[in-house]
Amino acid sequence: MLRRKIFTQLRSWAENKEKKCLILQGARQTGKTYAIERFAESHYGEIVEINFKETPSASDIFSGDLTVDNMVMALRFRFPDKKIDPEKTLIFLDEIQECQEAITSLKFWATDNRYDVIASGSLLGIDYKRASSYPVGYVDYLNMYGLDFEEFLWGIGISDDMIKTLRGYIDSKKPVPDPIHKKMMEYYRLYIATGGMPEAVQKYFDTRDFRDVDRVQRNLLQGYQYDIAHYATAEEKVKAEKCYLTLSKQLLDKENHKFQYKEIEHGARAQKYYSSIEWLLRADIIHLCRIVTDVRYDLADYARDDFFRAYTTDLSLLIAMKDFSLKQHIVENTLDGNTKGGIYECAIADALHKKGYPLYFYKNETTKKELDFIIQVDGKVVPIEVKSGKERATSLISAMKKNRNISYAYKFIDGNIGVSEDGIITLPLYMATFI
Q1: Which domains are present in the chain?
Q2: Which residue of 36, 113, 128, 133 pairs with 104 in a disulfide if CB–CB is 3.0 to 4.6 A?
Q3: Contact 384, 409 (CB under 8 A)
Q4: Is pTM, for the whole model, over 0.85?
């Protein structure tokens, strides 16, 4: 059983006496259903689970009056072996995007407040045109992602005490002892090659065979392509899939990682494809890192929507877009320049995204200054650069001299911890999950 951080968040929700219904959001195959089922086993006497994809006929439960008593009666008829006790039962509505009336019902479950209800599913298929039926204000939200590097370390068997020790090196700004650092970099390269999708990670732990991992990753990618074909409008199907499958080329095959429409097809323009990018974003199939025109708070005020980098929601999916040999090069640390830089940039973007940070970057064509990422922490901007080697972070130094409100910055490298006089904190790549 993979240990996931979401269990702690689910417990906090369940212990809140004024809780609303909970919607667990996230891309497909990130482990949402598994997490809720395991959580229910340890915290409730029983679980009443409806998967609207597996049993579309269960939509009949929500076809009449949406009073809680009516819905509970319908549930008892459908599940005669269940007691459906308000004190002991978790009602779990999975793949809820398949039943619009079940989405609407969350308002009434929340208002009644006798039963604990969790809904899960993809944002795919939700009818945004029926906005009046969406239970705004009656639900709490949690986001679930694939495994981050810390969860991967748990799976390998690294103890909480060891991880606490690793975090301590960030606080003390002292280098990690070389044997530990080398082992962590080895684990980190394994993590990048495997990605964070639970099925791929579990397969690696079970077999230690990357051919098996590769099959899982490619099946997951095929599933995402199926979802695009199934849920996207007829106008968007082909365009959205083309945009998605070009991400490996955009991020790993060229030095400039800005999303360029010309990589989709010759002569392609934003006018034709930007709606497809928006659809992929709304469906939680990609996430974006937007350019800003200035490196100051609030970054959203300086962000442009037409200049961005696009990333897959998990490394497993990006790696599956390339040849199997890429995994071997990652694990053996034999990547060439552009690909190595691209892989590490994507890994840091993945770590920051899974920590919930909106991502931005900065690029000035005139001065040639570029910041790979910028995040906001406690109302202040924190610039970040990712280096595959040990190059000087000239853009970070320039940004900190120009804006005295920037008190520190991060440089992630394939190396150890250090701090410069300029306030630049150099960290090993694997430390991104701990900041």
Answers
A1: 6-143 (3.40.50.300), 149-433 (no CATH)
A2: 133
A3: yes
A4: yes
